[in-house]
Amino acid sequence: MSNRQRMWRRIGIALVVFSLSSTAAFSEAPRRMRLGGGADLSVVSQYIWRGYIYNDDFALQPDAYLTYGNFLASVWGSLDMTDRKEIGIDSQGDFSEIDYVIQYAIPTRLVNVTLGYSFYSYPNTLDELREDTQEVYAKGKFKLFHDPSKASVEPGLEMFLDVDEAEGWYGRASATYSQPQSSMVWKLRGSVGFCSEDFANYYFGGRQPLFDSTSFCDLEVRLFTTFDLGMNFAVTPFIAVNYLLDSEIRDAYNEDGEFFGGLTVSWAF
After folding, report:
1. Is 15 left (phi over 0), alpha (psi -120 to 50) or beta?
2. Residue 11, SS3 per DSSP
3. Ramachandran region of residue 18, left (φ > 0), alpha (ψ -120 to 50) or beta?
4. Closest to 196 measured CA to CA, from 159, 153, 241
5. Do residues 78 and 97 make contact, with C-beta atoms less than 8 angstroms apart?
6. pLDDT tens string 211-260
7. Which of 114, 224, 227, 269 could cysteine-pair with 238, CB 3.0–4.6 Å?
8. CB 66 within 8 A of CB 35
9. pLDDT reading at 19 higher than 70
10. At 58, phi and psi to the nearest 5?
11. Is residue 183 classed exposed, middle or buried when 0-12, 13-18 and 19+ CB atoms within 10 A define those classes?
């Protein structure tokens, strides 16, 4: 492990410790320690992640999770429905990504905090395109303007730190507008991502040192709603647009933005 990797690991650990200590004094009582869980199955017209296009065609994305009190463990995957001919991979019917996540929720009076760890694996993908990596993260959803019974806005802030391959960070600020209508709630979410030069070089620069400063990364706007089907099943359709904000990233990556959509069927117990 290089000195730089050790440094990023120490920063990640410090971030988690600081978040825990700063929210402990304001935290609410922990949730009742009971076992829960569920599963989701999504179909998406494109797989776009933080402005990076992993797959420009349809993909199936299943996940399963278990909860116990404030803890959650999940496995998520993305299965290619067509070959990724643009990068020369015959991957139809294969998983191109499988992620493993452990996280802990800290509800407080003003903000719901989530701390977590993700391991990203990329089977059926060439090593020169993507290697397995790890992140630690902290998320916050603020309760200041959120009221589920009427139209409201819920701000959010997220920070992800890659402690392995990319050795960079990605942050996202968001706001979700909710509009209740009869038996469902329409939601419109806007988010702005920003990233370090190491993150941009790894994902958008082909691992070459093309960028030398922190920059805005991507803008995403998503419209969605959830229909309750009964028997603990629900379905959530969405449409979205994602746009790369930094002109240097757009030029290096040779992409501007994309419209995409999808549908998620969920079950919980």
Report:
1. alpha
2. helix
3. alpha
4. 159
5. yes
6. 999 999 999 999 999 999 999 999 999 999 999 999 999 999 999 999 99
7. 224
8. yes
9. no
10. -65, 145
11. exposed
For 162, list phi and psi in degrees, rounded to 5: -80, 120
Helix (H, G, I), strand (E, B) or coil at 105: strand
Q: Cβ–Cβ contacts within 10 Å for residue 194, how many? A: 18
Contact 48, 242 (CB under 8 A): yes
Q: How far, in Å, are 13, 38, 67, 182, 257 from residue 232 at the CA level?
A: 37, 9, 16, 20, 36
- Give CA 221 to chain center in angstroms: 14
CA 168 to each of CA 5, 92, 178, 207, 210: distance values in angstroms, whole numbers, following the listed order: 10, 31, 33, 12, 14
CB neighbourhood size of 79 (10 A): 20
d(CA 259, CA 36): 35
**CA triple 69-73-78, angle to 5 deg:** 145
| Residue type for position 243 | Y
Q: What is the DSSP string of 186-240?
A: EEEEEEEEEE-HHHHHHHTSTTS----S-EEEEEEEEEEE-EEEETTEEEEEEEE
Dist CA 7 CA 9 (whole Å) = 5
pTM more than 0.90: no
Judged by DSSP in three states, 15 sits in helix
As assigned by CATH, the class of the 3-268 domain is mainly beta
Ranges of each domain in the chain: 3-268
